[in-house]
């Protein structure tokens, strides 16, 4: 084994990774929550999707500026190191490896299993759902660990497949809704009166999960051909595709069923909408596409998860770096890092199930792993953006000042929104975060 990764991915794969990781689960999983949070106020819900999307695009563009300058092992850790020093880079990398990647990957495995259960009529909180979740986790791990090139091709394929149900619903749902009057009715009626400010905060935080994942595309920085050109293009093009797709899909849903029916349908909301527009057979067929799209998202997240500890070990940081920086010659994959990433996913899946999918195993110590780790990343971006303003003196006005300032404001907005939305859950999450960082300190070999 050695510790180098080959240049094997091109621009199309990178764009597909951005689109494929972000699109595919959150838009189905969180659409009902956004609508419920806003009390069925469709314009307010669309505003939440626009704000969440704008935050993603601004942050992605700001990182794309840095991507034109740095090319190492793992984009986000590289940017943290260059801006704030090795110690900051280490702790951010430790958080990404032990919490961010595994929580999102575990949640996505469950979301994939959830829609599989809806497809076959199983309970989404029963033993079948948990078994399917575990199977999907292992399957995505095996695909990435044993054949990364095949995983890349799967990412491109699913990125295309997952656009099918979204665009069909966006176009056909809107046409049907305008013809029947359902779209106008949903835009002009409100199911439940809610506080506009709190509703908007809750809805925007919910969209954070749907929009998250684009930063994981930077994890293939060292494996991307001409990455200083292709990575920035992928981040900007990919995030714009995502925002437009989500908003059109959300409008299309309003033409399929009433806001009240969608809010009450829970996990079956997507199936109900598809069956209403495309008949029961067509709706079931499109739900198969939804499951495939979720698996594509899971594949992209696992791609980042398997490289998490490797990104630290390649810098001789973290636990047993000589072990976890080894790259298998046959697969050109950091196999040991991949195994540890799968282990972390399993731990967080158990917490997710025990805290949110069944009668709580942890009493009051519960928090949402689909949203709060994402907000932590937004907080971690802030000092990086400040240093970009301070250090990159040869950049123009827009790239040096306007873009990073907008990105900082966006991150602060997300933090405030999360506090309003999750309230006391934020405290339990922060306690967990501190414990994880203390464990990380035990392996801290960095020099600030």
Number of domains: 1
Our count of helices gives 19
What is the CATH superfamily classification? Amino acid/polyamine transporter I
- Taking all residues together, what is the mean pLDDT? 84
CATH fold-level assignment: Amino acid/polyamine transporter I
Counted beta strands: 0
CATH architecture verdict: Up-down Bundle
Write down the CATH class.
Mainly Alpha
Oligomer: single chain
Q: Helical residue percent?
A: over 70%
- Report Rg: 21 Å
InterPro entries: AA/rel_permease1 (IPR002293), AminoAcid_Transporter (IPR050598)
Organism: Pseudobacteroides cellulosolvens ATCC 35603 = DSM 2933
Protein name: Amino acid permease-associated region
Keywords: Membrane, Transmembrane, Transmembrane helix
Word description of this protein:
- The protein has 448 residues and is mostly helical.
- The chain has a single domain, classed as Amino acid/polyamine transporter I.
- It is 76% helix and 0% strand.
- The chain is built from 19 helices and no strands.
- It has helices at 11-22, 26-37, 42-67, 75-84, 86-120, 127-146, 148-161, 163-180, 182-188, 196-211, 227-254, 259-265, 269-306, 308-313, 321-324, 335-357, 372-391, 397-422, 425-441.
- Helix 1 (11-22) crosses helix 7 (148-161) and helix 7 packs antiparallel against helix 13 (269-306).
- It starts with 10 loop residues before the first helix and ends in a 7-residue tail after the last helix.
- The mean pLDDT is 84.
- The chain crosses the membrane at residues 9-29, 44-67, 88-112, 118-139, 160-179, 199-222, 234-253, 285-310, 331-352, 372-389, 401-420, 426-443.
- It is found in: Membrane.
- InterPro entries: AA/rel_permease1, AminoAcid_Transporter.
